[in-house]
Amino acid sequence: SQVSGRALEDSIRISTGFPDMENTYASMKSLRYDVVVDVLPEVKWNPENGYKNLKIAVEIDREIDVQTAAEWELRRRLKSLGALRIVTDRGLEVGDVAVLDISAETIEDDESVARTIPSAESKGFQFDTEDDSNVLPGFIDSILGIQRGETKSFPYVFPDEWKQDLRGVRAQFTVECKELFYRDLPELNDSIADKILPGCATIEEASLLLFRHDEERTLPLLFFISFSGLCDPQVRETLLQKYVEVEETAREQATDNAILDQLQKLVEVDIPPSLLEEQGRELYGAQLLQIQANEKKLGEEQLASLSSPKAVNRFVESQRENITRIVKQNLAVGDIFRRENLQIPTEELVKEVEDSIAEFQRYRQEYDEKRVKSQVQEVLEGAKVLEWLRARADIRYTTK
């Protein structure tokens, strides 16, 4: 009764050994045993109510200026007019296109290789060295000079701005170059202006149409120029709105990450082991769903291996520091939600639970509906708290 309402689900365990229970029953004809349970820990704020006057510095990516955007798009369109030729006498250079097989494994403190990193693996990956938007920072530098048929191996530490479950993880990458091409491009002059952008007579005219100057700010129109309906005002405005939404989402995500990082620094909490294990399982489950979504042909044997308790435990142990940080953030957010009496609409919770269950069913993952509801509610509460904090925090933005 002393822990009623505070006991953590699935943390109850019998501490009395079986021989003791057997002896007690033999002598007293009754079964008695002791039970140990983890309880929801108390969150202490330092300073008290420190979350109410947060001062947050958010670092965001440098905005692309109009000229850079126009040059980027001109280059992209020029490349589409060129041809790929096989490289026979040298290694990889910036500007080339390579077909790569990539694999990665974690490196433990004793320098031993521990486990593969499925999300970092790719077969037949077509890598454009002029487009580093979908590869790890520094990846290009690590493979420059690699030749067709050659394999390179190099250590790598995932950066703090990478996916949460890989931040700070030490890894050993192995890259095999299957094919290597260079681009044979036409000369950029007025003779190909119409091919760069239909209806244009000069390269200068094409360049001018690749961007638009807004009265308040300059925006690169990277969405506009891929459509033949460029001159349709309705199309332009729709795509502009899409760009603005994407930009705003990225800014909000960076802000939320900065707020969460600040919150976990303001709380003191004694985290019970069951909470760490539960959070680790949730993170691993999310990673497994992502792997299944990316790897459509993941076999049942591979899936069983990745889902094994041993694989889950390895993940939890290797990510303990990161998991601890996330648990502290979650506890801080939950405490704010209760302190400020925030609410989640019932219909919103029901819909999100249904969507989450459908996702589990889609990838044939086992799930506990009660646990799914609890996890979804935690996510929605987090979103509500972050919205509340953003409206009250002193937020300053800087560019990288």
TrEMBL record:
One of its GO terms (molecular function) is protein folding chaperone. SUPFAM superfamilies: FKBP-like, Triger factor/SurA peptide-binding domain-like. It is an enzyme of class 5 (isomerase). It catalyses: [protein]-peptidylproline (omega=180) = [protein]-peptidylproline (omega=0). The keyword tRNA processing does not apply. Gene3D superfamilies: 3.10.50.40, Trigger factor, C-terminal domain. The keyword Chaperone applies. This is peptidylprolyl isomerase. The lineage of its organism: Eukaryota, Viridiplantae, Streptophyta, Embryophyta, Tracheophyta.
